[in-house]
Amino acid sequence: MKNTVDALWQLARLAVLSKFKLRGAYWKWRADTAFGTNAGRMPSRAARLKAVLEYGAWVGQMRRLAARGQ
Question: Which are the contacts of 57, defined by CB distance < 8 A and separation ≥ 6?
């Protein structure tokens, strides 16, 4: 649960930093990098949601490590 809340917080932070341009260049690049561009090989919606939440949790972990100077 804590990871989910942190992941959502980090995703919201990224949305603010990208000025909510969720179809802009950064988010398109993230989606293409994470899932590719072949629609036939796209994971299910549930799998994409899980991956996005895992990415948000990873961002939080990296930010905490960076704040500690590691």
Answer: 3, 4, 6, 7, 10
